[in-house]
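Board notes (copied after class):
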Amino acid sequence: MSLLTIVQYVCGRTGVPVPSTIIGTTDQQVLQMLRLLEEEGNDLSQRGPWEGLINEASLTTAATVSQGAMTTIASNGFRYILNDTIWDRTNRLPIAGPLDAPSWQGEKALGITGPRYRYRIRGGLLIVSPTPTAGYSWYFEYVTKNWISNAAGNAYKQYFTVDSDLILIPEELVLMGLRWRWKKEKGLDYADDFNTYEMQVKNALGRDGGKAVLCMDSVGSREVRPGIFVPAGSWSL
């Protein structure tokens, strides 16, 4: 749904005159609806790693401790790295981390040099220990704070700029979130709407992007392993 259709839908549900435009309007109720929608989107986008907000980034290592600013490496609105996703594709090895402050300082004090690279994010910079060799290709996945895209889907942002902007997080949750926020802002009873919303958010996070099957033993494991595979059905003896 676009910005315009979201606001029009909620206005129609709450008895507010349905607007024909959002950006550039002088209608105070519509402006308030817009700001509440942005508040909802920014809050909901931080509730979990929604698959629509996950991006892949890459860098070519430099022979320095700092590999640069995270906002430059992960240029689409970097929020945080997904743990255990940084890999050195040149050497086919994982990059350990993130290190906390005591671990980083301990490594520096003790002069630990390997064998694996470890990373830390400090001051917005990606820093690595030990200093890597230049020219390695590293890749990782990260969550963006840009939960809005333009209509073409090739530009991303955190706040709306045109009526045709689209959202990248579950639209049904955004609609529910905007409804309870509007009621709260107007001093109306919003408890039931809020409780339903919270339940739906938890359910959606549990399903979003698909989830791996958790097995407590090897019997239920779906991992493919070496062995002899016999197809189901009839076969000659």
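Comment from the instructor: The helical segments are 3-14, 28-44, 70-73, 101-110, 171-185, 191-207. The chain has six helices and eleven strands.
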